[in-house]
Amino acid sequence: MLDYCFRTLCCKGPPPPRPEYDVVCIGLTGSGKTSLLSRLCSEATDNIVPTTGFSIKAVPFQNAILNVKELGGADSIKKYWSRYYQGSQGVVFVLDSASSEEDLEVARTELHSALQHPQLCTLPFLILANHQDKPAARSVQEIKKYFELEPLARGKSWILEGSTVDNMTAVKESFAQLIHLLEEKDQETGRI
Ligand SMILES: Nc1nc2c(ncn2[C@@H]2O[C@H](COP(=O)(O)OP(=O)(O)OP(=O)(O)O)[C@@H](O)[C@H]2O)c(=O)[nH]1
Ligand SMILES: [Mg+2]
C-alpha cells in the first residue's frame, strides 16, 4: 500500500505535452480580437489599444495550445493581412455584430476573401459574431444570412458563434470546437 502511494504521488511523470496549433486571427478594427484573446490569457483588458502590425499570443486550453497571431484590422494594416497567412492551420475571424451597415459590408468582403484565399481556403474557420451584449447587435442567424455563409462556405469546416467579452465561458466553448476541427484535420493529414 505504502509502495503504491509512493509511486502514485512521486512517479507520475510529467503530463503529456499538449498539441500546438498556429492560428491567424483577423477582423476589422474594433471587432474585439485583442480583448477576447487577452481575456483568454487572463490578461488585463483595461488599456487595450488598436493593434499596430500584429501580435502573437500562446493561448492555453485544456487539450491544446493555440499560437494565435492577431493581425491589426485598421485600413492601413488590413491590406497586408495576406502576407501573414503562411503557416496557419486555422483561422479566427471576429466581427462586430453591432457595427454600421457599411462596416458590416466591409467585414463580409474581408471574410469572403479570407475564405477563398489559397492559403486559408482549406483551413477550419471560427467566426465570432462579437459584441452580442449590445442592443444593436444582429443575431447569429441574421449574420449567417447576411454573410451568405451557407452557400459560400459549403464544404468547408467552419463554426459561427455569437460572442461577447462578458461571457468568456461561451468563447472558450467556441474555441474548443475549433480545436476539435484542428485535431480532426491533423488526423486526416496523418492518414494521407
Ligand atoms: N460591448 C462590447 N465591447 C467590446 C467587445 N469586445 C471588444 N469590445 C471593445 O471594443 C473595443 C475594441 O476592442 P479591441 O479588442 O481593441 O479590437 P481589435 O479587434 O483588437 O482592434 P484592432 O487591434 O484595431 O484590429 C475595446 O474598447 C473593447 O473594450 C464586446 O464583446 N462587447
Ligand atoms: Mg487588436
Report what the structure shows.
The chain is 38% helix and 20% strand. By secondary structure, it is of the alpha/beta class. The chain has one domain (19-191): 3-Layer(aba) Sandwich (Rossmann fold). Strands 2-3-1-4-5-6 form a six-stranded mixed beta sheet, with helices on both faces. A hairpin with a 4-residue loop joins strand 2 (54-60) and strand 3 (65-71). InterPro entries: ARL15, P-loop_NTPase, Small_GTPase_ARF/SAR.
Can you summarize this structure?
By secondary structure, this protein is of the alpha/beta class.
Features:
192 residues, alpha/beta, Rossmann fold, 6 strands, 20% strand, globular, binds guanosine-5'-triphosphate, binds magnesium ion, P-loop_NTPase, GTP-binding, nucleotide-binding
- Largest sheet geometry: 6 strands, mixed
User: How many angstroms separate the termini?
Assistant: 47 Å
CATH H-level superfamily title? P-loop containing nucleotide triphosphate hydrolases
List each distinct ligand once: guanosine-5'-triphosphate, magnesium ion
What string, H for helix and E for strand, traces the elements in order? HEHEEHEHEHHEH
CATH architecture: 3-Layer(aba) Sandwich
Segments where pLDDT lies below 50 for 5+ residues? none
How are the SSEs ordered, and which strands pair?
Layout: H1 2-10, E1 20-26, H2 33-40, E2 54-60, E3 65-71, H3 75-78, E4 90-96, H4 101-116, E5 125-130, H5 140-146, H6 149-152, E6 158-162, H7 168-191
Parallel strand pairs: 1-3, 1-4, 4-5, 5-6
Antiparallel strand pairs: 2-3
Magnesium ion binds next to helix 2.
